[in-house]
Amino acid sequence: MVHTGAYTAVAVADVRIPPRSAELKLLLSLRPDASELEVCKVVDPLLISWKTSPRLATAVLSGLARERQADKARQLLSIMQRSRVEVNVYHCSAAISACEKAGQWQAAFGLLSQMTDMEANPNEVSYSATISACEKGGQWRLALGLLRTMPEVRLVPDGISCSAAISACEKGSQWQLALGILTGMTEARIAANQISFNAAISACRRGSRWHSGLCLLAAMPEMRLVPNAISYNAAISACAKSGRWELALNLLSRMADDDIVPNAITYSAAIGACEADGQWQLALSLLSEMSEKRVAPNEISYTAAITSCDKGGQWRLALALLSTMQETQVAADLISYNVVLGACRNGGLWKVALRLLNQMPGMKITPDKMSYSASINACAIEGHWLVAASLLSQMSKEKLEIDQICFNSVIHACEKGGQWRYALGYLCRMPEMRAVQDEISYNAAISACEKGLEWQVAVCLLSSMSQSKLSANEVSYSAAVSACEKGGQWQLALDLLSLMPQKRLLPNEITVSAAISACGKGGQWQLALVLLGQMPDMKLSPNEISYSAAISACEKGDQWPLALSLLVGMSSVHLVPDEISFNAAISACVRGLQWHLALVLLGQIVQLNIQPDEIINDAAISACERSGARWPWSIWQAI
């Protein structure tokens, strides 16, 4: 931020009138929206003296500028013109400065444009104040245009105008232009100052140009400029934004060498650097160091540390830091709560998320879309669809925008809760709520139908994605194939699987395993084995699920030798048979009247410490009864 008000004061420093004259006090006592007539009544007795001594008017205008009374300053200029009191460059510059301080860049630019009509030629101070006003208003193009115009009106840009333009470019994230102005200052032999360099370093931060920022910091001593806390803060922030936490901490250490005391902004930036890379231990260490150095942590410091803990999966610490903020009377803000709510989502703490959400209004913090979205997501992950749906309704009552992320979370919650009808309902509601349906929305709804054994609806949703100009992906097809598998639709499952390459989609292990299972349920054990054999050609590695599905297919097809062969073959591809694999193999042996083999497999289950389920137990008991064999004590214990 570049301040030009001090330089405007220098231009009128020859005025020997106290800054708070009686007239100025009267003007300041008027209400902010005072009319021009009210202002005229105050200054009317002074107009005659102003005609002979324009400096008196300058003093009043400068006083108004200091108090950010832009409207009164412009009214005063208008009154002076109408009363034929000389309006000079100092008067206009003071009024422009008032507009700059009040954040009225349009008014400042308007006054600069009108100066020629007032027969007051703008000077460097006029331009600098206007450029600074544009900088504060985020008008970097206009600020840059004014700087380039100065030579055309025979004015030489100085350090103040250039610094203001650099700051404007920094706010507009135009780091190249900011560096260009700084380079141009050197070429034009315009002395750069701390403000120029600090603004340029900050511009590098916004542009994620950490290296350029460090180069500028290193160049300051060569320009006989001493870096200050602002310089280091900007450089540390530049490193933080690019995830260069080691460099950020190195800069923090260098500050002590240069006898520069780090402040809360410095530490917050350094903690933010640790947050970007998930270095939660270092973030907490820096937060602790602040207390040791008697630097009071603020909400930004705490929020950065909380975010670091969240990214590092330390949700307990994130919650503890929020509690510490309350204990140390550091006001937690919306960002702090939203980060902690996000941590609750990642930690599956849906009850804690709801408690925090309800706590926010009491802390004079209004929950926003992100607050509700994180809370809904926390409920969705745990399958609490009713609570998630209730929060969505609350958002509607609060007139908050409900976006696709919120809807997707609720649909996902319905899917987890086995509520396929509600999942479809929320999917259909999205367009009327102006929430854009995406692939995630449809995938969650298809999965909900798969879990609800509604294969027809799942396939219909898959088909309708193209009508909604959405491209079904691997997840979409996997869910649809699984739905067909559960519905006993093996032919449709294979059709969907064969469609995937045509859509330039690569089937994954989940999709193929579901298709194998579908074939097994449809009595197509040969096709199931073909699919298992084709997986390497698809560049897929069969997993426990694939083998279990194939073994189950053999069991249903009364192919116990093949089932055993697959079970034994799992070790050759570095897979350990699980409960489901053994279950299918034992059932195959029982169906094939291979009682002794079934008992052998049961013994292997015991050796592998796999807990037999009811199906295995029933099959084993049946095998023992039929074979007339006595079970070892270890098998009895397992059952």
From TrEMBL:
PROSITE patterns reported in the protein's UniProt record: PPR
Entry annotated with the keyword Iron-sulfur: no
Organism superkingdom: Eukaryota
InterPro entries, sorted: Mito_RNA-Proc/Resp (IPR051240), PPR_rpt (IPR002885), TPR-like_helical_dom_sf (IPR011990), TPR_mt (IPR057027)
Keywords annotated in UniProt: Repeat
Boundaries of every Pentatricopeptide repeat-containing protein-mitochondrial domain copy: 308-425
PPR repeat segments: 88-122, 123-157, 228-262, 263-297, 333-367, 473-507, 508-542
One of the Pfam families matching this protein, by short name: PPR_2
Any one Gene Ontology molecular-function term assigned to this protein's record: mRNA binding
Keyword Repeat part of the UniProt annotation: yes
Gene3D superfamilies per record: Tetratricopeptide repeat domain
Protein name, entry field: Pentatricopeptide repeat-containing protein-mitochondrial domain-containing protein
UniProt source species: Polarella glacialis
